[in-house]
Amino acid sequence: MTQVHPIPPLYDGTSRILILGSFPSVQSRRRMFFYHHPQNRFWKVLAAVYGCRLPESVEEKKDMLLRNHVALWDVIASCEIEGSSDASIRGAVPADLGAILEAAPIGRIFCNGAASHRLYQTHQQKRTGLEAVRLPSTSPANAAWSLSRLIEAWSVIQTP
After folding, report:
1. Alpha-carbon gap, residue 136 to 101, rounded angstroms
2. CA 88 to centroid of chain Cα atoms
3. How many angstroms separate the CA atoms of 69 and 14, rounded?
4. What is the pLDDT of residues 2-50, one digit of tens each?
5. What is the DSSP string of 81-139?
6. Angle, nearest 10°, between helix axes 147-154 and 42-50?
7. Distance between CA 95 and CA 44 in Å, rounded?
8. Helix 58-67 × helix 42-50 angle, to 10°
9. What are the respective helix, strand and coil percentages of the chain, to the nearest 5?
10. 8 Å CB contact between 136 and 150
11. Does 59 have pLDDT greater than 70?
């Protein structure tokens, strides 16, 4: 069954970097916000990279991102997916990144994991003209990466 991305992109006119995931997990789709699975380390990593307190509410998460000039969305607008598994994604329809890129001075794009990076290269890079940097996934499925290793790798997102 085809799933349609239910979460709007997060950005404002000062966003300078764009972080792209692949497609929201089951929990994120239910809760209507990104990286909602309690074992996903996305919020811990970003809080450490930006030297912030770990945000708990959706509003705190949005505020932390926008304060640090970060836009957040996913590469896929709709797809067939089993549960939350990126490996099961079929029939991906790319998200339209145009509104974000027109409204904000995005200078760099980062992909959270191999699947989002591959999908970005396949469906988005020709449209945007911007190369994306692949970062290690913050997913609990990426158990080979410790939290400290993720924080070190993700520190490249800091805007000058």
Report:
1. 24
2. 18
3. 6
4. 888 889 999 999 999 999 998 888 888 788 899 988 889 999 999 999 9
5. -STT-GGG-EEEEE---HHHHHHS---EEEEESHHHHHHHHHHTHHHH---EEEE---S
6. 60
7. 26
8. 40
9. 35, 20, 40
10. yes
11. yes
Whether the model pTM is above 0.70: yes
DSSP SS3 for 79: strand
Q: Which residue bears the tokens 């972080």?
A: 19
Instruction: Give yes or no for a contact between 89 and 75, defined as CB atoms under 8 angstroms apart.
Output: no
Structure tokens at 97: 């990144």
Question: How confident is residue 132, by pLDDT bands cut at 50, 70 and 90?
Answer: very high
Q: Report the alpha-carbon distance of residue 114 to residue 141 in Å, rounded.
A: 12
Measured CA to CA, the distance from residue 16 to residue 123 in angstroms comes to 21
CA distance 152 to 160: 17
Q: How far apart are the first and last CA of the chain?
A: 43
Cα–Cα distance, 160 to 158 (Å, whole number): 6
Element (H, E) at 71: strand 70-74
Of 16-25, 77-86, 106-115, 122-131, least confident by mean pLDDT is: 77-86
DSSP 4: E
